[in-house]
């Protein structure tokens, strides 16, 4: 099956604006989910995935891509991506219910660092010393953020088991999310963006239903409204993020993902009264710095590869 190549518009400021909007909506999604209280992670995943489908369908219908969005040559690839993504989402949402909002967001920044690690270990990509150094420094930042919550390294009674479980869940979720990103990298070679997004929402919704035997709970109207809002926000944010990458290069847009820490701190304080700890701030700055360096390094390598191709091409 042949797919048309989507031409990207060169409008960096538009891309950056769309990315920041998507990040803000994702923070709103996390805030809504956290406000819903102690809801089983599988149940949250269902609401997040199922109600995200509706804005995605509207968008695809508007673009005239609804009919072709579900067509794929690689259903197994989508299912594997869905399995990794759903599991990552479940761990991430569990962490969100156990940790302050800024901390949960910051620990998720381990994901792009782990993408580099897994790219080398699983895909055999050539990762040079610069990026390995950035990854190591970034993971030190992650350790700083999570250190107070890892009770196995603290004195008894220092930190609750709830916080420790949340920190571990956040890191496991980040690792699984990194694996999901590698699967997406593989899918984008043959699949449309619309197909990847829609298939994930559909498979995630179905897979989340398998968690019902493990204990879903009855929800009041307020919890239901918050979870539906979270799912809808997730779908809208996904669309804004996708459009951001249509208007600007990934290396231009990606660093603005880290605005979520600032927005998370604001939302955490205004809604939950949470203040970031010194560990979160220091570790967050280290992780963000490492992540931005990796993005910058990827951009430089891309420019060098393009220059090498031009030099090698016959005149």
UniProtKB/TrEMBL annotation:
Family of the protein in this entry: Belongs to the drug/metabolite transporter (DMT) superfamily. 10 TMS drug/metabolite exporter (DME) (TC 2.A.7.3) family.
Domain EamA as annotated: residue spans: 14-146, 165-295
Keywords per UniProt: Membrane, Transmembrane, Transmembrane helix
The protein, known as: Drug/metabolite transporter (DMT)-like permease
Main location class: membrane
Residues in the signal sequence: none
Organism: Aminobacter aganoensis
GO cellular component: membrane
TM stretches of this protein: 12-33, 45-62, 83-101, 107-123, 130-151, 163-184, 196-217, 223-241, 253-272, 278-296
Domain of life: Bacteria
Cellular localization per UniProt: Membrane
Keyword Transmembrane helix attached: yes
Record's bilayer topology term: Multi-pass membrane protein
């Amino acid at each position: 099956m042949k797919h048309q190549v989507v031409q990207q518009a060169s409008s960096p400021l538009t891309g950056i604006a769309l990315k920041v909007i998507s990040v803000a909506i994702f923070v709103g999604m996390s805030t809504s989910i956290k406000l819903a209280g102690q809801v089983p992670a599988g149940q949250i995943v269902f609401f997040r995935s199922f109600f995200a489908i509706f804005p995605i369908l509207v968008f695809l219908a508007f673009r005239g891509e609804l009919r072709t969005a579900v067509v794929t040559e690689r259903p197994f690839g989508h299912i594997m991506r869905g399995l990794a993504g759903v599991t990552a989402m479940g761990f991430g949402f569990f962490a969100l219910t156990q940790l302050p909002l800024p901390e949960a967001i910051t620990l998720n920044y381990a994901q792009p660092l782990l993408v580099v690690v897994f790219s080398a270990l699983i895909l055999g990509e050539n990762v040079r010393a610069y990026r390995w150094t950035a990854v190591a420094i970034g993971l030190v930042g992650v350790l700083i953020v999570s250190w107070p919550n890892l009770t196995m390294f603290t004195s008894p009674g220092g930190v609750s088991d709830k916080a420790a479980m949340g920190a571990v869940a956040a890191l496991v979720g980040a690792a699984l999310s990194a694996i999901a990103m590698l699967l997406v990298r593989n899918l984008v070679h043959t699949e449309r963006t619309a197909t990847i997004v829609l298939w994930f929402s559909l498979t995630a919704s179905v897979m989340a239903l398998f968690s019902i035997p493990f204990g879903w709970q009855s929800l009041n109207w307020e919890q239901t409204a918050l979870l539906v809002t979270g799912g809808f926000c997730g779908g809208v944010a996904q669309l804004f993020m996708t459009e951001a990458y249509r208007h600007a290069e990934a290396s231009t847009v990606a660093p603005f993902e880290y605005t979520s820490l600032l927005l998370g701190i604001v939302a955490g304080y205004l809604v939950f009264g949470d203040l970031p700890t010194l560990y979160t701030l220091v570790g967050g700055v280290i992780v963000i710095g490492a992540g931005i360096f990796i993005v910058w390094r990827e951009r430089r390598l891309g420019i060098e590869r393009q220059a090498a191709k031009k030099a090698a091409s016959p005149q």
